[in-house]
Amino acid sequence: MLEHCQNARERWGGVSELIDRWLRGRQELLVQYCDLSSHAELAPSDGLRDQFVRLCEMLVDYVSAGHFEIYEQLIQEAREYNDGGLELASQLYPRIEQTTEVVLAFNDRVDGRTLTEADLTSLFAELSRLGETLESRFELEDCLIERLHTAHKNKVEPA
């Protein structure tokens, strides 16, 4: 049993650091989102264009890290502990995927394009929907983290 705990610590201890780093990225994303949202009443400018580009870069980085790093680690941990986490993930993951599609569609409206004033006005109108989508996504991700990782934390980290 002690050996199993030691192996778990070696195997999953780094996941907490990975998740912590990802959640710091989430916080930075939210700061960028809120800052941009607060400028919705301003006339479109190059500075706002740059802020939209930066927001989209952060969105894509965050979503990519979730799909290609975090979720894979959480699923692997769920397999290891085999305590119902895989079933939860199979229920939540399709809903997370739906939010990914919204994020990527928003990014596609900005990525590599010269944004006109009309584009910026339209993007500001979409920010509210994006914010609701992100809120939903964060709740789903928090549920995954809680169930697939935090529940095992005492088995992974030293007491």
Task: Describe it.
The protein is mostly helical and 159 residues long. The protein has helices at 2-37, 46-81, 85-110, 117-148, 153-156. The protein has a single domain (2-156), classed as Regulator of RNA polymerase sigma(70) subunit, domain 4 (Four Helix Bundle (Hemerythrin (Met), subunit A), Up-down Bundle). The protein contains 5 helices and no strands. The two termini are 15 Å apart.
Which features would summarize this protein structure in a list?
159 residues; mainly alpha; Four Helix Bundle (Hemerythrin (Met), subunit A); 5 helices; disordered N terminus
Order of helices and strands: HHHHH
Q: Which CATH C-level class is it?
A: Mainly Alpha
Per CATH, the superfamily is: Regulator of RNA polymerase sigma(70) subunit, domain 4
Mean pLDDT: 83
How many helices? The count is 5
Helix content: over 70%
Number of strands: 0
Structural class: mainly alpha
Give the CATH topology: Four Helix Bundle (Hemerythrin (Met), subunit A)
Low-confidence stretches: 1-12
Radius of gyration based on Cα positions: 19 Å
Main β-sheet description: none
From the N-terminal CA to the C-terminal CA, the straight-line distance is 15 Å
SSE arrangement:
Layout: H1 2-37, H2 46-81, H3 85-110, H4 117-148, H5 153-156
Report a brief summary of the structure.
The protein is mainly α. The chain is 84% helix and 0% strand. The protein has a single domain (2-156), classed as Up-down Bundle (Four Helix Bundle (Hemerythrin (Met), subunit A)).
